[in-house]
Amino acid sequence: MQVLRRKSAMRPSLKNGEIPQRLYDQITEHMPIASVEAMIVRDEALLFLRRNNQPAKGEWWFPGGRIRKGESLDQTLRREIREETGLELSSYKLVNVYSRVFPERHDITIVYRCVCENGNVKLNDEHAEHCFFKKVPAGLHPYMAEVLRDSRMAKR
């Protein structure tokens, strides 16, 4: 009996766990994406990044992103913080898990309150600017406001 196998050339190549855009678009059309976010606290201020991409383009947001296959939550959190801010994670604590439905996709997001080692923030191209806010910025997206309420930091 001969076993037929798919040639590896028929599968999309996954470099560093990245999904080709066409495949990612197909996935997001049919199912939620699992991700993490880092609510980084430094000197009683919260780090927000202004998003360059959808969803929530132009909004103040926390660093974070998709969980890659085979990656632990700890590994994802550390990788995303490093990639988006250049900071290194020292410690973290779970805030909550959220189901967020955007016009572009549906995310299941695990948010952590984080402390990072001191250092300068170095943004990648996903964000236009950053700021450590001691007071909550005006006009914050409702999803971010919900996280702040859950973390008991909304009154700042």
Protein described:
- The protein contains 3 helices and 7 strands; from the N terminus they run H-E-E-E-E-H-E-E-E-H.
- It has one domain: Nucleoside Triphosphate Pyrophosphohydrolase (Alpha-Beta Complex), CATH 3.90.79.10.
- Strand 2 (45-51) and strand 3 form a beta hairpin.
- The chain has 156 residues and is of the alpha+beta class.
- 21% of the residues lie in helices and 34% in strands.
Summarize the structure.
With 156 residues, the protein is an alpha+beta fold. The protein is built from three helices and seven strands, in the order αββββαβββα.
CATH architecture: Alpha-Beta Complex
* Broad shape: globular
Q: Which CATH first-tier class would you pick?
A: Alpha Beta
Q: What's the number of structural domains?
A: 1
User: Helical residue percent?
Assistant: 10-25%
CATH topology: Nucleoside Triphosphate Pyrophosphohydrolase
Question: Sheet with the most strands?
Answer: 7 strands, mixed
- CATH homologous superfamily designation: Nucleoside Triphosphate Pyrophosphohydrolase
**Gyration radius over CA:** 17 Å
| H/E series | HEEEEHEEEH
The total of beta strands comes to: 7
